[in-house]
Amino acid sequence: MKKTLSFLFTIVSISCFSQNNSKFSLHGKTKDIADGTVLLLVNSLTEKKMDSSVVKNNTFLFKTKIGVFPIQTVLFNRNLGTKTIWLERNTMTFNSTENSFSNAVITGSKTDSLVGVLRKEMRALKTYEEIVENEMKFIQNNPNSILSAHNLSIMASVFGKKKSTELFSKMSDENKKSEYGKRISSLLLDLNDLKAIEIGEKYRDFSMKNQNEIEKKLSDLNGKVVLLEFWASWCSPCRAENPNLVNTYNKFKSSGFEIFAVSLDDNKDSWLKAIQKDGLNWEHVSDLKGRSSNKAALLYHINTIPENILIDRNGFVIGRNLRGEDLNNKLSEILSAPSLDVKQEKKGTTIKIPNSMIWKDENGKVLSESELETMINSRNYIPHIDTVKNTAILKKI
Predict the structure, then answer these.
(1) Which of 77, 104, 223, 243 is 20 to 30 A from 39 in CA distance terms?
(2) CA distances from 151 to 122, 158, 166 (A)
(3) CA nearest 236: which of 29, 42, 34?
(4) Could you give the CA distance from residue 371 to residue 377 in angstroms, rounded to a whole number?
(5) Superfamily classification of domain 207-335
């Protein structure tokens, strides 16, 4: 849940494109950071480096020339972590003398202050649905804010094509022409009105080119237990998780387990280098359209990464965001359980159930052969099959 919500907590503010004659600067105070430590300032939209600064006596300074304000950036150091900051054309300060680097106090930016206020409000909301509704209302109430365009570029796949088109149509021309607006326009062309896939549903097939420009389909792995993994070379949590994923793959690949990894990169060289450096020896695909426009991510309503979907041998979704020991335990259960033989025929779907299957009624009673035959022949019951537990429960229609 925390990964699903993390993208929501960085959103929202009321601001404009207005500029004034004051200059931007960011004065930083830190603690216990060695002299010579380099801090990078990265544009969140383009993921490109904007500037760098060197820490000296636990202080640093940025006086970067920036064309448009406010702008969302990330202050980054591999050892210290990251801090997302909305920069404004003001004298700003960064203070981590009493907090961790990622929890530093920022002053001088109304946008950044409001993000903090709204983040606190969102924590008070009880459900994911309430948080989504809150985001939608913000965009409706602030169609001229650049933050509305920013939010919609992230939330469009959650809102759906119809609602997102409606929200976008009411935005200012300035918002529509912004980089966020361009992303939304592109997104709406590919967006569908399918709901987010749920556990128990059939997977959605798609094709995409691998690193060798060869078209690959998810359905190429039919009959395997497949982890559909969404990641990117620039995603620090993804890269941190990769060693665990490598161990899991090596442990279960001989038992019929495969990984189909979709990268949300837009830079092929970075993608390929990450695959090699992390030793990711499974199937990789990407359309190199980035995190906002990747067609597979839109199809599966992927809003943050890393995220994964576990698909059983018969193509049904049986888990989401399973990692580490949770993933290993689930795979141990699945790969040791008897599989069903599912075949598509002209007259319908035929399912061959293994003789070892345990049949029960709705109350959990194990059925004898005669009881099972009587109930099936009555045509008043439907079997609900659990391949992991190797059980079939007859439920009354």
Answers:
(1) 243
(2) 15, 11, 14
(3) 42
(4) 10
(5) Glutaredoxin (3.40.30.10)
From the list 190, 164, 197, the residue with the least C-alpha distance to 289 is 190
Question: Where are the strands (E) in the chain, listed by range?
Answer: 25-29, 38-43, 49-54, 59-62, 71-77, 81-87, 91-95, 105-107, 207-209, 215-217, 225-231, 257-263, 283-285, 307-311, 317-320, 341-345, 348-352, 358-360, 381-386, 391-396
**pLDDT at residue number 191:** 73
**For the residues 78-96, what does the mean pLDDT come to?**
92
| Helix, strand counts (H, E) of the chain | 12, 20
pLDDT at 18: 38
- Say which residue, 179 or 293, is predicted with more confidence: 179
Q: For the chain, what is the mean pLDDT? A: 83
Burial class (CB in 10 A: 0-12, 13-18, 19+), 260: buried
**Fold observed for domain 2-118:** Immunoglobulin-like (2.60.40)
Verdict on whether the full-model pTM lies above 0.85: no
Neighbours of 164 (CB within 10 A): 23
| C-alpha distances out from residue 277 to 228, 229, 237, 281, Å | 21, 18, 15, 11
pLDDT band at 79 (very low <50, low <70, confident <90, very high): confident
Locate tokens 């931007």: which residue?
A: 24
Domains 2-118 and 207-335 share a fold: no
Among candidate residues 55, 25, 61, the one with its CA nearest the CA of residue 38: 55
Do 181 and 149 touch, CB atoms closer than 8 A?
Answer: yes
178 close to 146: Cβ distance less than 8 angstroms = yes
| pLDDT band at residue 119 using 50, 70 and 90 as cut-offs | confident
Residue 265 to residue 61: CA distance in whole angstroms: 31
In the predicted model, is pLDDT for residue 3 greater than 60?
A: no
Q: Of the candidates 139, 23, 141, 142, which has an alpha carbon nearest to the alpha carbon of residue 87?
A: 23
Sequence spans of domains, the chain: 2-118, 125-190, 207-335, 341-396
Q: 259 to each of 67, 241, 292, 352, how far by Cα in Å?
A: 43, 14, 22, 26
